[in-house]
C-alpha cells in the first residue's frame, strides 16, 4: 500500500515511462521471446539470439541459433511464421487499419547458425559455460513499492496494463493496442511523496471523439491506477496530448527488438549496461546476469540489509567468472558495501552456469516478460523475483 511521507529537504521530480504490448518495439520483443521459448521447449540448452523488425505490413525475424539436434533448428524455423502471426493476433491486431494484418502481412524468416568462434567460448569442453559476450549488467531494488521497484515505473506499467485489460475485455472497445504512459513522481529527501504528472497516449478507433476518449481514459485508467493519497495539488493529467492517435502499431512506426531497455528495467532510476534482454538464451549474460543482479539486489532490500541497492556485474566473452562485482546501497546499508560484496561472492555462484542453475533459466519462461517489464512482476512467477526464505544470512 502506498502512503505519503512528510519529509524535508531538496525537492525534485523523477519520470519513468512504459509502453503497451501493442507498441511496435514491444511487439518485436514478444516475437523474439516466443521464438526463444520455442527453441527452449525442444532443447533446453539451445543457443538463441533472435531479432525482429516490424514495418507497416512486414515482419522480419532473423538471428543466430545452435541446437544439439539439427532437426530442432529446422522445426522452429518451420514454425516461426505461425508464431509471428499468432503473436500479432494475441496482441490484438486484426487488420491493416488498426496497425498490421496478421493474416496478409509479409513474414520473412532468416535463421543462421551460431558462429563457431562464439560457440567454442560459451560451451567449453570441460562443461564450463563462458559468458556469451562481454558487458556490464545492473540490478536494482528499493523499498518504494511492495514489489521493490521504483514508484514511477511501477505506476507507468500499471497504466498501460490497465489500458490493455479494458481493451481486451471490451469495457472500452474503442481502444487499440498501441499505447504509452509516463509518470512523474515528486521526491523529498530521497523519498517519493506524490505523483505530479501523468501522460497517457492510447491508440483508438476513429469513431471516438477526443473529448469522450479523454474522459473515459481519465476515469477508468488514470483514476483507478493513481491512488488519491499520492496526488498533490500540482497533479496534472495529459491524455492523448496531440489530440488524435488513430494510426498505430507497425503502420505508424517501425518496431525493433531491444529498443525499450529502460522500460524493461527500472525506468531510468539506476544505470543500465546497454544490453537488451528479449530473444537471448540464458548463456547471454546481458540477460541472465541482469536477472541475477536483480535477484541479489532485491534480496538485500527484502532482508532489511538496505533501503535501496544497486548491483553491478561485468563479464568478458568466453570467461566464466565475472571480472567485477560491485554493490552500492547509497548509504542506506546496515553493513558496509564491501561486506555485502563479500557476502554475495561467498553465497552465490556468479558464473553463467551458476546463474542458470540458481534461477533455473533453461526453460521457456521468457515470452511473458517481453511486455510490462522484467522486474517487479506479480502477475507471473519469475525466479529472479523470489525472496530467499530466511533472508540473506
TrEMBL record:
UniProt binding sites for Mg(2+): 25
Ranges for domain S-adenosylmethionine synthetase N-terminal: 11-116
Entry keyword set: ATP-binding, Cytoplasm, Magnesium, Metal-binding, Nucleotide-binding, One-carbon metabolism, Potassium, Transferase
Cofactor binding mode and count: Binds 1 potassium ion per subunit.
Molecular function terms, GO-annotated: ATP binding; magnesium ion binding; methionine adenosyltransferase activity
UniProt xrefs under NCBIfam families: metK
Family: Belongs to the AdoMet synthase family.
Assembly: Homotetramer; dimer of dimers.
Name recorded for this polypeptide: S-adenosylmethionine synthase
Organism name: Nitrosomonas nitrosa
Amino acid at each position: 500500500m502506498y502512503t505519503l511521507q512528510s519529509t524535508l529537504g531538496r525537492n525534485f521530480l523523477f519520470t519513468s515511462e512504459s509502453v503497451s504490448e501493442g507498441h511496435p518495439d514491444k511487439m518485436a520483443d514478444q516475437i523474439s521471446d516466443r521464438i526463444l521459448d520455442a527453441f527452449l521447449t525442444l532443447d533446453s540448452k539451445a543457443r538463441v539470439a533472435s531479432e525482429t523488425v516490424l514495418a507497416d505490413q512486414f515482419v522480419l525475424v532473423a538471428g543466430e541459433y545452435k541446437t544439439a539436434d539439427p532437426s530442432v533448428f529446422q522445426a522452429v524455423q518451420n514454425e516461426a511464421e505461425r508464431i509471428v502471426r499468432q503473436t500479432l493476433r494475441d496482441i490484438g491486431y486484426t487488420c491493416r487499419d488498426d496497425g498490421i494484418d496478421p493474416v496478409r502481412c509479409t513474414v520473412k524468416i532468416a535463421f543462421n547458425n551460431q558462429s563457431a568462434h562464439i560457440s567454442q567460448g560459451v560451451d567449453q569442453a570441460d562443461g564450463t559455460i563462458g559468458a556469451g559476450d562481454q558487458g556490464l549488467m545492473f540490478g536494482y531494488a528499493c523499498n518504494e513499492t511492495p514489489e521493490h521497484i521504483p514508484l514511477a515505473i511501477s505506476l507507468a506499467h500499471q497504466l498501460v496494463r490497465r489500458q490493455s485489460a479494458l481493451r481486451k475485455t471490451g469495457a472500452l472497445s474503442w481502444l487499440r493496442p498501441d499505447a504509452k504512459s509516463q509518470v512523474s513522481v515528486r521526491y523529498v529527501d530521497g523519498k517519493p511523496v506524490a505523483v505530479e504528472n501523468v501522460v497517457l497516449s492510447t491508440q483508438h478507433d476513429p469513431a471516438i471523439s477526443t473529448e469522450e476518449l479523454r474522459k473515459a481514459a481519465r476515469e477508468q485508467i488514470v483514476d483507478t491506477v493513481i491512488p488519491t493519497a499520492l496526488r498533490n495539488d500540482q497533479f496534472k493529467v495529459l491524455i492523448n496530448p496531440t489530440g488524435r492517435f488513430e494510426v498505430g502499431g507497425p503502420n505508424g512506426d517501425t518496431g525493433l527488438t531491444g529498443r525499450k531497455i529502460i522500460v524493461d528495467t527500472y525506468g531510468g532510476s539506476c544505470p543500465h549496461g546497454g544490453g537488451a534482454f528479449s530473444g537471448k538464451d540464458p548463456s547471454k549474460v546481458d540477460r541472465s546476469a541482469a536477472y541475477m543482479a536483480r535477484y541479489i539486489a532485491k534480496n538485500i532490500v527484502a532482508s532489511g540489509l538496505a533501503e535501496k541497492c544497486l548491483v553491478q556485474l561485468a563479464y568478458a566473452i568466453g570467461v566464466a567468472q565475472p571480472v567485477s562485482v560491485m554493490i552500492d546501497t547509497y548509504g542506506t546499508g546496515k553493513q558496509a558495501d564491501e561486506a555485502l560484496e563479500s557476502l554475495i561472492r561467498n553465497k552465490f555462484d556468479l558464473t553463467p552456469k551458476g546463474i542458470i542453475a540458481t534461477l533455473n533459466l533453461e526453460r521457456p519462461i521468457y515470452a511473458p516478460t517481453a511486455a510490462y517489464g522484467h522486474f517487479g512482476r506479480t502477475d507471473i512467477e519469475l525466479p529472479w523475483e523470489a525472496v530467499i526464505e530466511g533472508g540473506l544470512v
